[in-house]
Specification:
Blueprint lengths: L1 E3 L11 E4 L2 E4 L4 H14 L3 E3 L7 H4 L4 H16 L23 H5 L7 H7 L12 H20 L4 E4 L21 H13 L3 E5 L6 H7 L5 E8 L24 E6 L5 H17 L5 E5 L16 H12 L5 E5 L5 H15 L9
Parallel strand pairs: 1-4, 1-5, 5-10, 6-7, 6-9, 7-8, 9-10
Antiparallel strand pairs: 2-3
Helix pairs in contact: 1-11, 3-5, 6-7, 9-10, 10-11
The structure holds zinc ion.
């Protein structure tokens, strides 16, 4: 199987994030992608290839050009404004009630702030998104990885894997957040609809709800989004991911959320997975973009499911049994000791290869 990787992700070298107001060691770190890369190389069944440059066009087909501009300008602005911080993390966000009573017309003319601290809030969801000198380049690299993975599948590969870092599924049209800057999966799905003229499905298997992907395709009838995730009543991103969010307009019925309880294990997960697989199989169209997270693993430090390594092989096998071309893109997963083994297990399953004994 071809796997797309670039070392550009190393530029997004963050050491800390904030959690409930405290600075804590970052979870979304360089070692994540490197441990997966090492495991793929050790396995021997993967051909690592570099991404090609796809420019800003496919990004701005999905994201507000203002978000792209902000991310490009953010670190130079931190330096220019002499902000004495190792990373840019906003602390003031435009919360919805701040604008209560204001008409859409007035709201639409509220200006983006000048100060970079204000701009970081304007374009952001939360404080889990530190920006450092190499963040913009790393985020652009992750998009190129996703689009190159799509290119491989469009050229005839049955399944290809993009080792995207930073991840993407929390990033909405006009918003970065939750370790995500550009929505790699959404950008690939949009490019796929344009390239093929066919409907595309996105299957989000990260532990968290992909609020950004849902937002981007909320009113779209040509992109079906399905997600299995920790119930937002207890889990980040808290405000979206409920079962009654099913899409609107042309997208009515094209959004499927399956919030799951704490402690969800292998059997319950496989049972829940059947519904999105059936929903994809029932729909016309070809390509499936998989937002693949391993934060569903039992020992993940920030999540509460209980999946084991062998079940990732079975999940990969079942997703591949759809018989659709698969663009598999990396999202979350924070238990470094098992990240590589879990990725190899999933991808071996998708490739129709045998699983390995649990590490
Ligand atoms: Zn996640």
């Amino acid at each position: 199987m071809k796997a797309v990787y670039t070392s550009r992700h190393r530029g997004h070298d963050v050491t800390h994030e904030t959690f409930l107001g405290e600075s804590i060691p970052a979870n979304e770190v360089v070692a994540r992608a490197e441990s997966i890369r090492a495991a793929l190389e050790t396995d021997g069944g993967f051909e690592l290839v570099g991404p090609t440059d796809h420019g800003r066009g496919p990004i701005e087909a999905v994201h507000d050009p203002g978000l792209v501009r902000f991310l490009e300008e953010s670190w130079p602005a931190v330096e220019r404004e002499r902000i004495p911080r190792p990373a840019l993390i906003a602390d003031t966000y435009p919360s919805r009630p701040m604008f209560e009573g204001m008409s859409e017309a007035v709201l639409a003319t509220r200006p983006e702030p000048d100060a970079i601290a204000g701009r970081a809030g304007w374009w952001g969801l939360d404080t889990a998104n530190p920006i450092v000198a190499g963040t913009y380049d790393a985020a652009r690299g992750a998009v190129d990885v996703a689009l190159t993975t799509l290119d491989l599948v469009l050229a005839g590969e049955r399944v290809a894997y993009g080792l995207c870092r930073p991840p993407g599924h929390h990033a909405a049209r006009s918003m970065a957040g939750g370790y995500c800057f550009f929505n790699n999966a959404a950008i690939a799905a949009e490019a796929a609809t344009r390239a093929t003229g066919e409907r595309v499905a996105i299957l989000d298997l990260d532990f968290h709800h992909g609020n950004g992907t849902q937002q981007i395709f909320w009113r779209r009838g040509d992109v079906f989004y399905a997600s299995l995730h920790g119930d937002p009543r207890r889990i980040y991103p808290f405000f979206l991911g409920h079962a009654d969010e099913t899409g609107e307009g042309d997208g009515a019925g094209e959004n499927l959320n399956l919030p799951l309880p704490a402690g969800t294990g292998d059997e319950a997960y496989l049972e829940a997975l059947q519904r999105p697989l059936d929903a994809i199989a029932d729909r016309p169209g070809g390509l499936v973009v998989v937002s693949l997270g391993f934060d569903t693993y039992r020992d993940d430090p920030i999540c509460d499911f209980a999946l084991t390594t062998p079940v990732y092989h079975e999940i990969g096998r079942r997703v591949a049994s759809l018989g659709r071309p698969l663009v598999v893109l990396q999202e979350g997963g924070y238990h470094l000791p098992t990240l590589g083994a879990n990725a190899v297990a999933w991808l071996r399953g998708a490739a129709g290869r045998a699983g390995l004994a649990e590490p």
